[in-house]
Amino acid sequence: MHPTEVSIPLREVTLGGELIIPSGATGLVIFAHGSGSSRHSPRNQFVAGVLREAKLGTLLFDLLTVAEEQAEFHTRHLRFNIPFLSGRLVAVTRWALNQQACGGLRIGYFGASTGAAAALVAAAEFGQTIGAVVSRGGRPDLAGTALSRVTAPTLLIVGAVDTPVIPLNESACAQLRCEKALELVSGASHLFEEGGTLAIAANLATKWFVRHLDGKAD
Q1: What pTM, to 2 d.p., does this model score?
Q2: Could you give the strand order of the β-sheet that contains 57-61, starting from the edge strand earlier in sequence?
Q3: Mind listing the domains of the chain with CATH numbers?
Q4: Sign of the CA dihedral with 74 first, then 76, 77, and 83 last
Q5: What pLDDT shows up at residue 55?
């Protein structure tokens, strides 16, 4: 099972990505990272590896081009621009839906930090096309009014010692009208850097996706 580097042409830019579909895959999880990260994020790469062991395909891609990342480093103008980030995710999702390699697999979103808000906004736009959403250390509150329109079963995973973010996730969870759950990972901070905490989050995400992504899309 080797990674396939892909170029994802959008209307205004081309984004780099990594698409891996295990044999017998039962779903495809698209990752939305936070600002300042990329498809090479060690944390998301770790989670993706756990998902693939459970026969879930993964698509990790760069939400921003190199030039945009460089500008963002100095201006921070895109970090919390959720409409922009979700627009990119929507466009990449449409690209994936048209790829033969994806084989009509049901799609899920895995979002981290502000990428979680982008994932929820995109899920609200796609409706039943998206089978599940998982947020890790995310800011789902930034999805705003889109929260009440999300139909995909949504799991919010938060570090139990990430005290500033816990109430934001609790508030967002209360606004969701879909199947939902909030899990606190004991001993974990915002980045899940403490020993074993990222593995716990990855296993929670895997169980959620396996449960809700049931093979071919309608």
Answers
A1: 0.93
A2: 4-9, 14-20, 57-61, 28-32, 107-112, 130-136, 154-159, 180-185
A3: 4-212 (3.40.50.1820)
A4: positive
A5: 96
